[in-house]
Each structure stands twice: as C-alpha cells, then as structure tokens.
Amino acid sequence: MAELTERGRRTRQRIVEETGRQILAAGIGGTSLDDVRAATLTSKSQLFHYFPGGKSELVRAVAEWEGAELLAAQEPHVHDLSTRSSWEAWRAALVDYYIGQGRWACPIGSLATEAAARDPELAAVVAGAFGAWADLLTAGVRRMQEAGAVRTGADPRRIAAAILSAIQGGLVLSQPLHDPWPLEAALDQALHALDAPA
Amino acid sequence: MAELTERGRRTRQRIVEETGRQILAAGIGGTSLDDVRAATLTSKSQLFHYFPGGKSELVRAVAEWEGAELLAAQEPHVHDLSTRSSWEAWRAALVDYYIGQGRWACPIGSLATEAAARDPELAAVVAGAFGAWADLLTAGVRRMQEAGAVRTGADPRRIAAAILSAIQGGLVLSQPLHDPWPLEAALDQALHALDAPA
Fold this sequence. Notes:
2 copies of one chain form a homodimer.
Chain A: H1 6-26, H2 33-40, H3 44-50, H4 55-72, H5 84-100, H6 107-115, H7 120-146, H8 156-177, H9 181-191
Helix pairs in contact in A: 1-2, 1-4, 4-7, 6-7, 7-8, 8-9
InterPro entries (chains A, B): Homeodomain-like_sf, Tet_transcr_reg_TetR-rel_C_sf, YxaF_TetR_C
Organism (chains A, B): Klenkia soli
Protein name (chains A, B): Transcriptional regulator, TetR family
C-alpha cells in the first residue's frame, strides 16, 4: 500500500479498532463491513482504499494490532520475568487487561478459535502472535532456570506453552461464569513450575 | 415441546448435528439456518417446528448435545480417575477426541468464546457443560487426594479448573499451529498436580 498521511493512518487505525471491538462482541462471522463503516463514518471506497483485500485483509490487520496491544499490556514486566515477583507483576497486569478492563476474553485466542479452520492466512497471523508471546515467556522461564528456580532438565518452551495455555483456557472457563477464579486457579497452578525444582 | 416420534427425534438430531458441524467450521455468526436446511434437506416450517425459538434455541440445543458428547468421549475413565494410570487413559481418550478425530477445537470452548458476550442463555448452557465436566474431574482429584497423591490442603476444585483450562487453552494454541504439542505440554504440566505432594 502507498504510504499513508497522518490523517489516513488515523482513519485506518479507527477502522481496525472498531472491527476488533465488533469481532470480540459478535465473532468474525457476526461482524459486517457495513456495521464497521457505520460506526467509523467511512465510505465503502475509503474502506477498500485501506483494505483492498476486503474483510479478510481487515481481519488480519485486526489480528496484528491485537497481538501488539496484548504484548504492550504486559510491559515492562514481560521483558524481565527473572524473579518470582516480576512474574507476579506480569500476572497482575495481564489479569487487569482481561478482567479489570472488562474484556473477559483474549482477542487473539478468540480469533484462533474462529479462524484456524477456515482462513489459513489469518491462522498464520494468529500463530505468529502466539509465537511472539511464547518467545517472551520462554526467555523468562529460561532466566528462572538460570537462577535455579526451574529444574535443569525442564524445557522452557513447554513450560511457557503451559503458562500461555493456562491463560487462554482459564479465560474460556471464566467467560461464561463472569468470574475470574478459574483463570486465577489455572495461572497459579501453571506458575508453580517456577517454584524451585523437586 | 410435544413428544416427538422416533422419526421426528432423528430429524431434530440431524439438524442439531449439522448445526454443530457448521458452528465448529464457521462460528455461530457464520452459520445460517438456510445452510443448515440445505444440508439436512428440511423445510423452514420443519426447522421452526423443532426449534420454535429459531437460531438461538437451536444453538442452545447444539451446546447441550456437544456437552453430552464431550463427556461421553471420556468414558469410562472420567468416572474413575482414582489412579495415575486412569488419568493417563482419560488424557489419551481426550486427545484422540480432539486431535485424532480431526476436531482441533473444543466445541464447548468455541461456543464459550463466541457466546458469552452476547447470549446470556447460551452462556448459561455452556457454563453448565463446563460445570458438569469440572465436577467429574474434581471428584477424580479428590480420589487422588484420598490416596495421598495430592497435598491435603489443596483445593480439588481449583486443581480440576486448572486441568480443564490446560485442555481449553492448549487447544487454542494447538489449533493455528495444527500441532498437538502445546496441548500435550499444558496437560502434562497441569497433571503434575497429581504427582505426590511436596
């Protein structure tokens, strides 16, 4: 795409954020470009100017943006994670992002559930977002391992995947209950992997 | 609803199963009653005869049926879970149900993600399905606790929720990769709670 003016960049971003909001509330299938245009006061030609590939290109842009937002919400802790208290600060920031701010769902996890079966390009963007997140957690687990808090033979990548799964699955369980306790129980148990080796 | 004939029961069930298939592939929002009618060769009046409440009633029936199927796939192990080997047999049956049979998603978890924000009645059915599942796992964890494999002070309900979260979250991560390793890593780590107390 040609380089955007500042104003164009803001319009494009407004479209992406509104689409993300609608997807979180109604799923990809329940989100229509007409509703997005109405909510952002944009014309059909404007929308296709920014997203020539139509809805699927727009949804991929949403996935990229949500992935970046999700990592930003975990700053600065996600780049430390070298002590148990840094992990606790990270955990608190993440629970606030999901529950405190009223999302009750992971934008990336929701896209994964809806996308993987039918849109390979979107599935690749979602896998990339999970991959970037898993890399950060893996690096943190490795720091804990170097500090002696994780068994030497354990695979930091598998521990990080289990922590990420606890987040995603805890949210799936918390959402219909509208109660954070399953998310917290899952995270607590996954983080036990960081409490000194047996 | 009036009692159904055997033939009526089969037609209703065919509609429920086809809707479940379409939801798993395209989400609730991407599933249309017209597509369901076309695939099941039913008329509009037949469909509304079985589901007078329309799509939302049909989706709730799908949630109830998928919840029962999911528990059935875990038989007979899910009613034992009193030894580590019974937990391993349960784990194998479950991984086969999701991965071996090519689902790569949890029908109930997917409904939870899509439903909770916008359909409180469906969210209640989903919460009920998770609740029934969690009760079975909680009973199993309690048996392991009685056998001395779980710390006395630990709450079996929280351990069961963490195991269930590992399943749901592991699937969310496995799906876009089309690789079961995150599911297996998450389950392995969650099941460590059953390996003798510290």
